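SUBJECT: protein chain
CONTENTS: sequence, structure tokens:
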Amino acid sequence: MKSLHKTFDILEYVILRNGKKVLPSEAAEALDINLATCTRIMGELVKRGYLEKVSRKSGYIAGPMIVSLNTRNQLYKRIADAAAEPVRQLSEALNCQVNIAVLNQAQRVMLAFHLADYPVFPWQKFRFEDHWDTATGRLLLATLEKGEAKAICKSAGITPFPADYFEQLRKDGFVRFALNDLCIIGHLIRVPGYPPAAFGFGVPPQQADRALELSAAAALKISVKLTMPVCQAF
């Protein structure tokens, strides 16, 4: 099992480098894996097409299987596809980073994002547990059964359990709150047959009213697209 975990860690590390070549020594140091083990695993991933070896001196990049895995029809891909254009338009209209996520057990997984001209790089991991500080985190927790939500909140240090607040989020379908110098806004995407999803972003307070209006329209576009027959929507 430990070997399997190392394999996933290495694969994710290379993908998160956004196309930069990764040497086995770099991955081994970053992930605290024995260099010989790391080199062996990367070699096996090359054989299966998940990594591509550019050269011995240059290192490895993501291989064709990474893209190929995402070519088949499945729920999470359809959510990401439906959100791609509305998220892009919203990001560019507000000049901020917008991401859409789902909850997988106790962690949020980012399905898609758009950066617009926001002066940051995409995050350096795929899974997150900072639920209370994010629009997507609060919204997705609100969709869970009370017992499950309580357990995750306790583990994440969210106390006391905000039962009434979550009930209001489920009713409203959106969230808006202040964090540092930003207004954090997000919307739930709840379509029968799909797992709950949510997108979120942060804007200066003076943009909040306009941002809430634009994001509500984006949420509607995503939901409508997901209700269309697959052959029409995608």
